[in-house]
Amino acid sequence: MQLPDLQTSYSLSGEQIAHYRENGHTIVRGVAAKEEIVPYREVIRQCVLADAKPMEPLEKRSTYGKAFIQVANLWERSEAARKFAFARRFAKIAADLMGVDGVRMYHDQALFKEPGGGHTPWHQDQVLWPIDTGKTITMWMPIVDIPAEMGSMTFASGSHKLGYAVDLLISDESHRTLKELIAAKGFPAVTYGAMAAGDATFHDGWTMHNAPANPTGDAREVMTVIYVADGARVAEEIRTRSQALDLAGCIPGAGPGDLIQSPLNPLLYSRSSPGQ
């Protein structure tokens, strides 16, 4: 099957870039056209069906387990998924929003919230990542249309400016603690509501965010790609077991202070390299 190449550029406005840098999140509509998304949806769904771990019925799972079915690094499993995750179009948007010359893959991840799936608690992504820079960004792209009742994410605007807030994984405790912190700091909670397949939100690694439950009869199918600025290094201090596991899994062979450039962190876009 001939898949769209997703290599053409998408031009951001100055307002979109400024909004992202001030608030730690933004939405970019129509990053991929519907006809581009349709063939990739089938590729991504097949990867999730093949690699998702068996799970108990929703009612027997923890809050985290109810939030979504999660499969990481699809690009290693499928050449077709690799073409999506390595898309120059997506990577250039990430670099433009962060204001960096190039970006590398940190990892990709499919997140499917099942019909009746639970809420995703408030959390910060970068708590898990052993990275020495604030220049990280996640693209969150639905591969199906998402009506407002199905729910896209909610962001605490400006919360990225706090940096590392608390050492908490996604849990009831992170939800309670960060909800209190967001209220205390007066960060506005912003959601972009309904999204079409191929729209995307981008958020900073430190931006606090959550997502509502899915009360509909359809799955909320989302593909994410996490980028890190080219030239970033592994943090000098690995704070938690989760960070140690992420270091081994996402930056294999690297240690504190090393450049993030393992075989799992290819350069996806560079202003100085015509081929990127």
Helices and strands, with pairings:
Layout: H1 14-23, E1 25-28, H2 34-51, H3 63-67, E2 69-72, H4 79-85, H5 88-98, E3 102-113, E4 120-123, E5 136-142, E6 154-156, H6 172-185, E7 189-191, E8 200-204, E9 209-211, E10 220-229, H7 241-250, E11 267-270
Antiparallel strand pairs: 1-8, 2-3, 3-10, 3-11, 4-9, 5-8, 5-10, 6-7, 6-9
Report on the structure:
This protein is an alpha+beta fold and 276 residues long. It has a single domain (20-265), classed as q2cbj1_9rhob like domain (Jelly Rolls, Sandwich), CATH 2.60.120.620. The protein is built from 7 helices and 11 strands. The protein has helices spanning 14-23, 34-51, 63-67, 79-85, 88-98, 172-185, 241-250; strands at residues 25-28, 69-72, 102-113, 120-123, 136-142, 154-156, 189-191, 200-204, 209-211, 220-229, 267-270. Strands 1, 2, 3, 5, 8, 10 and 11 form a 7-stranded antiparallel beta sheet that branches. The protein is globular and about 50 Å long. The two termini are 24 Å apart. InterPro entries: Phytyl_CoA_dOase-like. This is Phytanoyl-CoA dioxygenase family protein.
Calculate the mean pLDDT score and round it: 94
Low-confidence stretches at least 5 residues in length (pLDDT < 50)? none
* The CATH homologous superfamily: q2cbj1_9rhob like domain
* Global morphology: globular
* Number of spatially distinct domains: 1
Helix-strand category: alpha+beta
Provide the CATH architecture.
Sandwich
Question: What does the main sheet amount to?
Answer: 7 strands, antiparallel
Question: Percent helix among the residues?
Answer: 25-40%
Calculate Rg over CA atoms: 18 Å
What is the name of the CATH class? Mainly Beta
**Helix-strand string:** HEHHEHHEEEEHEEEEHE
Distance between the termini: 24 Å
Number of beta-strand segments? 11
Could you please say which CATH topology applies here? Jelly Rolls
Q: DSSP strand (E) fraction?
A: 15-25%
State the helix count: 7
